[in-house]
Design a protein that fits this description.
With 501 residues, the chain is α+β, with helices and mostly antiparallel strands. Among the domains are: 102 residues, Beta Barrel (Thrombin, subunit H), CATH 2.40.10; 99 residues, Pdz3 Domain, CATH 2.30.42; 97 residues, Pdz3 Domain (Roll), CATH 2.30.42. A hairpin with a 7-residue loop joins strand 7 and strand 8. The protein is elongated, with a radius of gyration of 30 Å.
């Protein structure tokens, strides 16, 4: 069982035939090393660690409701009563008689995955999706011993879970290695329970690192061509020292079977999460309190940043740590606690790894100038709870309807009627888009009716006339792109570079 899987075009399934001509081509004899053929150490490693790899069996009780039609009843009233009594007794626990009997039958849903023991006392690592919604979890050792498991903690963001089992005999445990030391092309070994075939060993190489497959905010996967299939989820990925350097989590496959592209959570990520789950039963991640987006080449040009880098602050949580530290929307974070932020997805990982309550320097670029802000980190989980609270609406002054057409946009002052029409929150300020030309650059940027333009070139706009004046000034200054801050109906903002040509 694996997590959300990327799908591949059906064309990828078509066989590709290739012919290789060898005539008239003379190559010098090559002597392949044992590593090139496949390291002999794989057998030794497998024997050494396989007793620490376990199968995970889960059971979920579900109620299945279905309509069961009763057979045609005889005309004799006495026989009809006998038939009804028979079917009611057979379907005891279901609904009443009549033409149909609504039957509610409890059933057990089973699923299988993999895991591995990291502590001889009975601590087991697996994927969260393997044990999600499970009523019963059973850990099956390599010798067939079945042990009931309890959940210590789990983390949906990295798809990791920690279990505890009790055994009358000593358990074999494995250690984590350093995934940062992995090299492309390095041999790795996967062991798990694909398709319920426990104790399966496959080998391959590290084909890529730092993969982002859009499965969560901390994507940083190891990509391998070691065969990983459904049921391998939660199993270990070993280096040739017998150390766990990844937790197998996802595959790309059009059919559900291995096509040589599998992904594992690197041990560096896993260890930090597992330590917190073991200590607290939950994660305690650092929280900055910003919403970010990628700094594209156009956005970098608009903000006078060369080269394009960092994470653009699209919004600030009013209750978050960034607010009192003086970080603002439009700032570009290029360094956090001494670590370079080369692209947007670097920031969530380094912030999450930072201790809660730590004061860290955050280097930003604001209007072309670098500056450093000191931020005392909060806890992400607390921030998520705060975000679920309903914020009180603020009354907004009434605006007169003034429609302007520019850059393929029809713009209007934000009136009460337009707020109701587009269901725009009272806290959102700016001018509303009421129409978009389908062939315009604005349509290409996915601007749509109901979006609210909050800023142009990092300056707030309060009316359609104000917007036009700002655009005219940018054109006069020779600017090719206008950087807009656009809010959705719910108030979530994003930066949109819009061509002025």
């Amino acid at each position: 069982m694996l997590g959300p899987l990327a799908q591949i075009s059906r064309q990828a399934r078509r066989p590709v035939l290739a012919a290789v001509a060898a005539a008239a081509l003379v190559l010098p004899a090559l002597t392949l090393s044992s590593a090139a053929r496949g390291p002999d150490a794989i057998a030794d490693i497998s024997e050494k660690v396989i007793d620490a790899v376990v199968n995970i069996s889960t059971t979920q009780r579900a109620a299945e409701t279905r309509n069961t039609p009763l057979p045609q009843m005889p005309n004799d009233p006495q026989l009809e009563d006998l038939f009804k009594d028979f079917f009611n007794r057979r379907d005891r626990g279901g609904g009443g008689g009549g033409e149909q009997n609504r039957e509610r039958t409890p059933r057990r849903v089973n699923s299988l995955g993999s895991g591995f023991i990291i502590d001889a006392s009975g601590i087991v690592v697996t994927n969260n999706h393997v044990i999600a919604e499970a009523d019963e979890i059973t850990v099956i050792l390599n010798d067939g011993t079945r042990l009931k498991a309890e959940i210590i903690g789990r983390d949906q963001k990295t798809d990791l879970a920690l279990l505890r089992v009790k055994s009358d005999k000593p358990l074999k445990a494995v250690k984590f290695g350093d995934s940062d030391k992995l090299r492309l092309g390095e041999w790795v070994v996967a062991i798990g329970n694909p398709f319920s075939l426990g104790g399966t060993v496959t080998a391959g190489i590290v084909s890529a690192r730092n993969r982002d497959i859009n499965s969560g905010p901390y994507d940083n996967y190891i990509q391998t061509d070691a065969s990983i299939n459904r049921g391998n989820s939660g199993g270990p990925l070993f280096n040739l020292d017998g150390e766990v350097i990844g937790v197998n989590t996802a595959i790309i496959s059009p059919s559900g079977g291995s096509i040589g592209i599998g992904f594992a959570v690197p041990s560096k990520t896993a260890v930090a999460v597992i330590d917190q789950l073991q200590q607290f039963g939950e994660t305690r991640r650092g929280w900055l309190g910003v919403r970010i987006q990628q700094v594209t080449e156009e956005i970098a040009e608009s903000l006078n940043i060369k080269p394009a880098r960092g994470a653009l602050v699209a919004g600030i949580d009013e209750r978050g740590p960034a607010k009192p530290a003086g970080i603002e929307p439009g700032d570009v974070i290029i360094k956090f606690d001494g670590k370079d932020i080369r692209e947007m997805r670097d920031l969530p990982r380094v912030v999450a790894d930072a201790p809660v309550g730590k004061e860290v320097p955050v280097v930003i670029i604001r209007k072309g100038a670098e500056m450093t802000k000191m931020v005392t980190l909060g806890r992400l989980e607390d921030g998520e709870k705060q975000a679920s609270l309903t914020k009180p609406a603020e009354p907004q002054p009434e605006q007169k309807t003034v429609v302007k057409k520019t850059l393929g946009l029809e713009l209007s002052n934000l009136t009460d009627d337009l707020r109701k029409k587009f269901k725009i929150k009272d806290t959102v300020k700016g001018i509303v888009i009421v129409g978009v030309e389908q062939t315009s650059a604005a349509a290409d940027r996915r601007l749509a009716a109901g979006d609210v333009i909050v800023e142009v070139a990092q300056e707030a706009v309060a009316s359609a006339d104000d917007f036009q004046a700002r655009i005219d000034k940018l054109k006069k200054d020779g600017r090719r792109v206008a950087l807009l801050v656009v809010a959705g109906a719910d108030g979530e903002t994003r930066f949109v570079p819009l061509s002025l040509q």
